Amino acid sequence: MRVIRGLHNLKAAHRGCVATIGNFDGVHRGHQAILQQCREHAARWSVPLTVVVFEPQPREFFAGEQAPPRLTRLREKVRLLRDFGTEQVLVLPFNDTLRSLTGREFIDQVLIDGLGVKHLVVGDDFRFGCDRRGDFALLADVGRKQGFGVEHTRTFTVDDERVSSTRVRTLLASGNFSAAARLLGRPYSLHGRVVRDQQLGRTIGVPTANLPLLPQPLTLRGVFAVVAELANGERYLAVANVGFRPTVGSTRPTLEVHLLDFSGDLYGQRMTVFPCIRLRGEVKFDDLEALKAQIERDQTRARHYLTAAVADNHYALPLASAPLGRESMSSNTVFSNTTSSDSYSADDAADANNG
To answer: 100, 127, 217, 257: least buried by Cβ within 10 Å?
Structure first.
């Protein structure tokens, strides 16, 4: 997979592709359906599938800390896009230069001169350009004149409701990790590399692995029973705190993980953390002794829950086999193309462009 940062890094070899545009936050099952739709066209044209994303996401640029929390960091998003068949990711810096482009300028500079698209898949509610004139109708009109196809994304639903990043965030915030896994197609997880920190956990007999989080709104916050997976694939029952550790006065968000029944050096290792149940919210304790007593209670509760929930000796996640519920994907033919096509598309964005 090729990751291209900025239009200035596009080369001739990157041109000629099937493309889609959006945040793809979480790369959930709705996004996966869109990628499948794109792969079908890419195979027909024998060209690469390209996903165009923005960094920061537009709502983060405009709303700052009021923007919705991310489900995936850029690194994890790129990995997931690769896993679902994406061959190129164009990361456009969302800044004053980009936001000042008109709808037609965006089409000319990004899609025509930049990527040389053969076919474009976007939601019919996709809007772009400082003049707010960039929409599906404009894309279809330019596509007819310039010789590239434009097609609606398919709608993917679970339990008769469209899968979206917003819906996933709501489920995670309520602690419903099993339902969130159904929409994501995998258990929700947090990732990072273990770094040296204040090492206060060792002083109270609870050593922790500290994984710094980006200074962005947090999807989760509180104390959770989790399964921690190391880079070598080994999994451990654990307790994790996600937040700012108010008792020790931390000013930056951290994922702090205590692995049960583990001893060893984890510094520098990458770790994946799968939240399974929320135990409590963050609390500022009067002193470290009160914090230690609460941590011991958290460990007892986490061990009780996880021991009952984990299925086998390999610590297979119970969320991984969560039942899927009713699913459907619309398949009405709604597209604009200068050539004939037997493909099908939907009348909804499935959150690829605004989720």
So the answer is: 100
